[in-house]
Amino acid sequence: MKIGVISDTHGLLRPQAVSALQGVEHILHAGDIGDLQVLEDLRRIAPVTAIRGNVDTHRDFRLLPETEAVELAGKLLYVIHDVKQLDLVPAVAGFSAVISGHSHKPLIEWNKGVLFFNPGSAGPRRFSLPVSLGFLTIANGQLHASTETLVVS
User: Nearest to residue 82, comparing CAs of 39, 48, 118?
Assistant: First the structure.
């Protein structure tokens, strides 16, 4: 199963992101969506699990949770916007991965058998950080993560 992971769109769903996500079976949005139209556009590609981030304060976002647990292809994934707000021990809770955003910095890190994955920001460029998104692949019970830097002008 191939899962697209996107975060920090801040209301901007770039055509390059839409193109990169073609063919995924599910999309996780780790918050700072900025505009609910972003989720509608993503749903045209695949089913979406989304949480709200710290900029998603408009009342339209109140129905989105701050965190979400989702099971995909037998792996339990925990989605939170700011990993510094994590208030559980993922390995003890049975999570295979913690998906986050907020920092705009891509990260793939394993800690005590749990993947900590931040796809970076796919929205407006921030400082000199790359514009990126990520992918999780689950095959033969194994979880693999990768990021993709989007070529934008």
Answer: 118
Residue appearing with tokens 């939170």: 80
Asked if 32 and 55 count as a contact pair (C-beta separation under 8 A), the reply is yes
Which residue, 50, 73, 77, 49, is CA-closest to 61? 50
- pTM (global) more than 0.90: yes
Q: What is the pLDDT of residues 8-59, one digit of tens each?
A: 999 999 999 999 999 999 999 999 999 999 999 999 999 999 999 999 999 9
Range of 56's domain?
2-149
pLDDT tens figures, 100-135:
999 999 999 999 999 999 999 999 998 889 999 999
Nearest-angstrom CA–CA distance, 102 and 118: 8
Q: Tally the domains of the chain.
A: 1
Find the CATH number of the domain harbouring 41.
3.60.21.10
Report, in this order, helix, strand and coil percent for the chain, each rounded to 5: 15, 35, 50
Secondary structure (DSSP) of 54-83: TT--SGGGTTS-SEEEEEETTEEEEEES-G
Count CA atoms closer than 13 A to 151's CA, side-chain side.
Answer: 1
